[in-house]
Amino acid sequence: MKESVLRDYFENRISVESLAGNVKNTQRKATYDTTSVHVEQIKDGSTFQVRKVHLLRLCNEVLNGNLTLEDINSIALALVFSEYFVWDTNTEEGQMIETVIYDWDSPEINFPLTLSNMKFWKQYLETGDYKLGIENK
After folding, report:
1. C-alpha 6: how far from its chain's center?
2. pLDDT > 70: what percent of the chain?
3. Residue 29, exposed/middle/buried by CB under 10 A (0-12, 13-18, 19+)?
4. Could you say which of 21, 35, 59, 120 has the lowest number of CB atoms within 10 Å?
5. CA 35: distance to chain centroid?
6. Residues near 122 by Cβ (< 8 Å), separated by ≥ 6?
7. pTM for this structure?
8. Mind listing the pLDDT tens digit for each residue in 72-103?
9. What is the phi/psi pair of residue 105, to 5°?
10. Which one is predicted more confidently, 135 or 66?
């Protein structure tokens, strides 16, 4: 997976099909309970500010069948470990972004990646009302 492809998707320069093709089959089992994703990073010292609109777009792509739940997990993992993609956790928007990305990154700890939970994440990004709870586990 390439950070440049994800950036280009966020900037509306490439299609979801191009993003999906880049993300597809990037996960590898490291151990029985650990997954890794190889990410080709952007190392030019710049950063890209992730916004709610970017995550909402990803939610819609999953709900429309254009990205898989595994794709979202791979993208989240890439975002968590990226030095290029950033969000400001001192803002409400940044805290929401962080919550959703970390939920997507660790579904075995947080909430399973399901279409019904994806609708809750989308609603959270749109309204700020976090409805995921113990009943979603």
Report:
1. 10
2. 93
3. exposed
4. 21
5. 15
6. 56, 59, 60, 63
7. 0.91
8. 999 999 999 999 999 999 999 999 999 999 99
9. -70, -35
10. 66
